[in-house]
Specification:
Shape of chain B: elongated
CATH class of one domain in chain A: Mainly Alpha
Strand content of chain B: 15-25%
Radius of gyration of chain B: 24 Å
Strand order of the largest sheet of chain A: 1-2
Largest interface: A-B, 32 and 33 residues
Order of helices and strands of chain A: HHEEHHHHHHHHHH
CATH architecture of one domain in chain A: Orthogonal Bundle
Number of strands of chain B: 10
Order of helices and strands of chain B: HEHEHEEHEHEHEHEHEHHE
Largest sheet of chain A: 2 strands, antiparallel
Shape of chain A: globular
Radius of gyration of chain A: 24 Å
Oligomer: heterodimer
Largest sheet of chain B: 10 strands, mixed
């Protein structure tokens, strides 16, 4: 061990090694994703090749043991629940971020921000149990059976509101101070500053957060199994019990075999494609080249 | 964390850590290989699994070298895993089907399936015909079945559950005939759903329903053909909607599996069977 080991050439060699280590770790984590998609493709291939993609969309019913593989009712239920939850959660989340940063006295804003962070970490099965014992009977009192699309939307709203609040908050925080100060210097009111300067400037981050929240809503399973009734039918009313794609996989995978099993993997593939599309949109909008 | 990990002195330290790791890996892999010989894997019915797990714990206490590994996933999985050899013993909460003559079934306990309604429901009993009519959507209001007016919520089990099979088989229904409003997976979910909805009707294991009803859940078990739905009547064999809980093996079970089966059927586990509200079969 001599001083020469600490020369700049050695440092650059150490840098090279570090780069190699970091790159290996990064490639490893993205390889996991590629492997998952590859696995989904491999497992669903028997169904895609023998049954054909069209029948998954156009078969009149989901009775896989009798050769009917219509996923459309469950796909529409998944989309309806996610869209409903996003519609409810977006104003709540954005409003809570604005309240936190611009109106709340610091202690209250701090408490609120922490409660949002904690809420985003509550396990979905706990929220589902609460939905099953509190929300479902409440809806059931007016419109039985209670387990319904509406219950699913409300539960998903509870789960994704914190996501939207936290990402919108971060987007607002990342704006340069000059925007707010400039607006004040121009004599704009606080409302005008928010509506015409800060929110438009933070739009990319806010929308990216909403899309990520939508992806989470689409992928949610445990809570949805408990509150949404799980009957395979198109969601024609808010009070209809519906089964989402994720719930279908959770309820049937343990018992499925053959083309039934493969068709469950097709629904997994479909979900993954939707989530990738949403994440890609979020990435483009947020403009961040890594970890949008 | 610094980048100095890879300097000369540290490299030697790293090498010795590597050697220590290699020794550990060799040690653990040999002990794993050892454990595999004495590991008993049971998979299948989510009704049998908790019982098998408790019996397994006591079996491990008496045979410290053996590990019992219990995984639930439905009776169909139990049959499939026993057949493919993935599990040493499968678990199924039903009698053997006609196409399962290649498998041996060992009954370790009995379980009854009972119809449950909310405690606020005025209905005290239903005939088999009424139950079929309710589940096929021909009766949709409790006033047509002897109760106060109110819409009926039919709670059904998801495809593949043995409770569903037993229910359909007993009432001679096909899966597509049932007009369900809520479809659930586990017994607990059915109990919570019925307890929270005054108009709901469902069916679950009598053991779990009796336990929950005694502990304040808002559910009531209905009698079937005049026989009260109770653990006692399942034991005596008089309750019609009942099923055996079985361990399954393909052909003759191995030595360890054989000992486990004998143990699970012995008087030494009656207290475990009773504590889970099932009914022992051994004399």
């Amino acid at each position: 061990m001599t001083l020469s080991h600490r020369s700049s050439s050695s440092r650059s060699r150490r840098d090279t090694r570090l780069v190699a280590a970091v790159a290996t770790a990064a490639l490893g984590s993205s390889a996991i994703f590629v492997l998952i998609v590859g696995f989904l493709l491999k497992e669903s291939w028997p169904a895609l090749s023998t049954i054909g993609p069209a029948r998954f969309l156009f078969d009149p019913a989901w009775r896989p043991t009798e050769g009917l593989f219509g996923l459309a009712p469950m796909l529409s239920a998944s989309l309806a629940a996610s869209v409903g939850a996003v519609i409810l959660a977006t104003p709540l989340g954005v409003a809570s971020a604005i309240f936190c940063r611009h109106y709340a006295p610091p202690p209250i804003g701090w408490i609120h921000r922490w409660s949002m962070a904690l809420l985003s970490g509550v396990p979905s099965v706990v929220i589902g149990l609460w939905g099953l014992t509190a929300i479902v009977p409440l809806i059931g009192r007016f419109e039985p059976p209670g387990a319904s699309l509406l219950a699913g939307i409300l539960i998903l709203t509870v789960m994704i509101t914190p996501t939207i609040a936290l990402t919108s908050g971060a987007a607002l925080d990342s704006l340069p101070d000059a925007y707010g100060r400039g607006a004040v210097a121009l004599g704009l009111s606080r409302e005008a500053t928010l509506a015409h300067v800060l929110l438009p400037a933070a739009r990319g981050g806010v929308v990216a957060g909403i899309l990520l929240a939508a992806a989470r809503a689409l992928g949610e399973t445990m809570a949805i199994v408990m509150v949404s009734g799980n009957v395979v039918q198109a969601p024609l009313s808010l009070f209809d019990p519906v089964r989402m794609l994720t719930a279908n996989i959770a309820l049937e995978m343990a018992y499925a075999s053959g083309s039934h099993r493969a068709s469950l993997f097709v629904s997994g593939l479909m979900l993954t494609a939707l989530v990738i599309a949403l994440a890609a949109a979020a990435w483009r909008l947020s403009g961040d080249r890594c970890h949008g | 964390m610094s980048v100095s990990w890879f300097r000369g002195k540290d490299r030697r330290a790293l090498a010795s850590i590597g050697r220590i790791c290699a020794v550990y890996i060799a040690f653990f892999s040999s002990s794993l290989g050892h454990a595999a010989d004495n590991r008993l894997v049971l998979t299948g019915s989510s009704t049998v699994a908790p019982l098998a797990a408790e019996i397994g714990k006591r079996f491990e206490e008496q045979n410290p070298s053996i590990r019992v590994d219990v995984q639930s996933g439905g009776s169909s999985r139990g049959v499939a895993d026993a057949r493919s050899g993935l599990a040493d013993l499968g678990m199924a909460s039903r009698a053997p089907n006609a196409d399962e003559t290649d498998l041996q079934f060992f009954t370790i306990a009995r379980d009854g399936v009972g119809i449950i309604v909310n405690t606020n429901n005025l209905v005290r009993s239903l005939t088999d015909e009424q139950i079929v009519a309710i589940y096929t959507g021909k009766i949709t209001d409790w006033s047509k079945a002897g109760g106060a007016a109110g819409r009926i919520t039919v709670v059904n089990k998801a495809e593949g559950r043995s409770t569903l099979e037993l229910f359909l088989h007993y009432f001679k229904l096909k899966g597509g005939d049932v007009k369900a409003h809520v479809i659930i997976g586990e017994n607990q979910q059915a109990i919570k759903t019925v307890a929270g909805n005054p108009g709901a009707i469902g069916y679950v294991s009598i053991g779990s329903a009796e336990y929950e009803a005694d502990h304040g859940a808002h559910i009531r078990l209905l009698p079937m053909s005049g026989v009260a739905a109770s653990v006692e009547n399942v034991r005596s064999g008089s309750f019609p909607l009942a099923r055996p809980l079985n361990l399954i093996s393909k052909g003759e079970p191995g030595a360890v599996a054989r000992r486990f089966v004998d143990f699970a059927r012995s008087r030494g586990v009656h207290d475990i069977v009773a504590s889970q509200f099932f009914v022992p079969v051994a004399p």
